[in-house]
């Protein structure tokens, strides 16, 4: 308790002197305190720390690694080969008016929605380091291209933890609607500081896209083998960092639970939000979810006598916030760029807020829809879905990445064909009027 009070005091002093020259020294002292606090508690509770670390390793190797590796390697290759730039030019007329970001943002959004955290942030950081996005555009992209994947929300959380498919559909819809809403709001982020770009309808996007693709192929000085080797190396390095954060926060949450920190914050939350009449177990689940979303969702699923709307509301908030564990992973990737981590965390707060609002819209819709669907027909092989082998996971992720990439390319080409036909039609109508 003394260590906690000392740390809280240091944090308040740090916040007060943020713009003072003493800020770096206090920040350094706070980091020393956190490290010492963690080491002392690991020494004091070695068995609990070991079990938590083992759980973190198991989660990373059996869940995160096979799910993300194909996406990381594939995205690296597509960027190097110029395919992402090709897609971006074709989708520019759609994504620019909505989110005020380059067309490549559509590819990042598709990859983030499909694979989940932290795929979107990795791609944005990579594009920013290559100067393909301006700083303002990258900050806008981070606001809505950092999402969870449907396999986690529907498969792991809804079916695996709550045993309720309708819950997963409600959560996923609210989660993605919240992300889109935040992205639309962030289109006005530092709008006055951005130069104005005008896109004329008569621009030949298809010609520009293929020209850019062929130029990328021509300018590439590396062979495909070198590009593949570099993609594998960078992807594995990033996944090792992600794994380290998963293990670290698994240990931190276990230690905070043992020393009573989670319980203390939960009691404070219950008293502060007394008008919602929340249970202590619900508060503990939410507080745990603030640190690590999987743990928070798991604790929520174990609560008895909790309404469906509360399950959907708090689970959506936890997943949209994503937890300090995901924030730390994102910060490690953002730290290699000139982007602002604070702005990213603020966007995740807005994401959690808007997603929770959309829950009240999605729950009635899914409840009505599921009355007319025979769900057991789709879950006949639920055992296989919930307990896949490591090989099947990585094969499924590979197929999913290829499918999504082909789908995005086809949709972008069809979009440009539609624009081309529209221009021809309006041109014909204009000539007929003359």
UniProtKB/TrEMBL annotation:
All residue ranges annotated as the Nucleoside transporter/FeoB GTPase Gate domain in the record: 63-162
InterPro entries cross-referenced by the UniProt entry: Gate_dom, Spore_IM_YlbJ
Superkingdom of the source species: Bacteria
Keyword terms: Membrane, Transmembrane, Transmembrane helix
Transmembrane segments: 28-46, 67-91, 141-162, 168-189, 239-265, 308-328, 349-370, 400-421
Keyword Amino-acid biosynthesis tagged: no
Protein name (Swiss-Prot/TrEMBL): Sporulation integral membrane protein YlbJ
Organism of origin: Crassaminicella indica
Species classification: Bacteria, Bacillati, Bacillota, Clostridia, Eubacteriales
Gene from which this protein is expressed: ylbJ
């Amino acid at each position: 308790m003394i260590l906690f009070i000392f740390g809280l005091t240091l944090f308040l002093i740090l916040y007060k002197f943020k713009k003072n020259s003493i800020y770096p020294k206090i920040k350094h002292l706070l980091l020393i305190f956190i490290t010492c606090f963690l080491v002392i508690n690991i020494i004091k509770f070695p068995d609990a720390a070991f079990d938590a670390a083992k759980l973190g390793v198991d989660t990373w190797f059996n869940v995160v690694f096979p799910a993300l590796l194909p996406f990381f390697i594939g995205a690296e290759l597509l960027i190097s080969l110029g395919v992402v730039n090709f897609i971006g030019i074709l989708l520019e007329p759609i994504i620019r008016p909505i989110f005020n970001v380059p067309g490549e943002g559509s590819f990042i959004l598709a990859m983030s929605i499909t694979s989940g955290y932290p795929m979107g942030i990795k791609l944005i950081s990579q594009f920013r380091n290559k100067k393909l996005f301006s700083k303002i555009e990258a900050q806008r992209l981070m606001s809505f291209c950092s999402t969870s994947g449907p396999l986690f929300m529907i498969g792991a959380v809804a079916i695996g933890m709550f045993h309720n498919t309708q819950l997963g559909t409600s959560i996923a819809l609210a989660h993605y609607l919240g992300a889109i809403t935040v992205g639309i709001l962030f289109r006005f982020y530092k709008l006055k500081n951005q130069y104005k770009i005008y896109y004329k309808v008569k621009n030949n996007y298809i010609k520009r896209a293929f020209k850019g693709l062929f130029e990328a192929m021509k300018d590439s000085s590396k062979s495909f083998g070198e590009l593949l080797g570099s993609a594998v190396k960078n992807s594995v390095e990033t996944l090792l960092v992600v794994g380290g954060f998963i293990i670290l926060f698994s240990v931190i949450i276990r230690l905070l639970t043992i020393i009573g920190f989670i319980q203390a914050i939960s009691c404070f939350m219950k008293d502060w939000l007394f008008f919602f009449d929340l249970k202590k177990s619900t508060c503990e689940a939410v507080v745990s979810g603030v640190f690590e979303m999987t743990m928070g969702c798991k604790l929520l699923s174990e609560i008895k006598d909790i309404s469906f709307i509360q399950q959907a509301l708090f689970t959506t908030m936890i997943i949209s916030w994503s937890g300090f564990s995901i924030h730390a992973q994102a910060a490690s990737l953002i730290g290699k760029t000139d982007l602002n981590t604070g702005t990213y965390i603020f966007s995740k707060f807005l994401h959690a807020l808007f997603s929770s609002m959309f829950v009240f819209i999605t729950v009635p819709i899914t409840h009505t829809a599921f009355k007319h669907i025979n769900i057991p027909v789709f879950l006949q092989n639920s055992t296989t879905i919930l307990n896949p082998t490591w090989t099947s996971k990585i094969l499924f992720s590979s197929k999913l990445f290829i499918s999504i990439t082909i789908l995005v390319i086809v949709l972008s080409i069809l979009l440009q064909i539609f624009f081309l036909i529209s221009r021809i039609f309006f041109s014909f109508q204009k000539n007929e009027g003359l």
